[in-house]
Amino acid sequence: MAVGRTEIPAKVFVAWLGIARAKFYEWKRRYGSVNEHNGKIPRDFWLEEWEREEILAFHDRNPLEGYRRLAYMMLDADVVAVSPSSVMLAGRQQEIWAVRDQRLQAAREARMNQRRAARTELHSAQQHQPGCHVPAEPVRPATTRR
After folding, report:
1. How far is 94 from 53, CA to CA, in rounded Å?
2. Partners of 9 in the beta sheet?
3. What pLDDT digit, counting tens, does each position of 24-35 carry?
4. Which band of pLDDT confidence, cut at 50, 70 and 90, is reported for residue 70?
5. One-character DSSP codes across 37-72
6. Distance from first CA to last CA of the chain, Å, rounded?
7. What span, in angstroms and rounded, lies between the C-alpha atoms of 1 and 10?
8. Where are the domains of the chain?
9. Dist. CA 63–CA 121, nearest whole Å
């Protein structure tokens, strides 16, 4: 078969281009048709906008609950029937979990600071008791040279 107006055999033309013959014939078959992309095709299991809004509104009414508990609470309250992972993803898109995580991190840091302060206080109290010797610096063994 000759290609277009040049009358060059397809075998020679494909060799010049350095592509497989199957790719050439696939291009020829698609020539003139609309270029279809691999974009996201809406699925029927994706959350609809009203469901996402209901999830976020329910979270606003129950801000201390986690995504799993929210999912089952919404199911019991007949708000929306979605999986816990859908609740988590809807919240992640709006970054509602980020605020909660920041609060939890701040609480963890406050607890750590309280523990450090208690340890420091205990350590200083032990140093001032008579008969209790706590060295200020660790004692290092003397090194000898040979």
Report:
1. 10
2. 2
3. 888 888 888 877
4. very high
5. --PPPP-TTSPPHHHHHHHHHHHHHSTTS-HHHHHH
6. 92
7. 6
8. 1-31, 49-94
9. 37
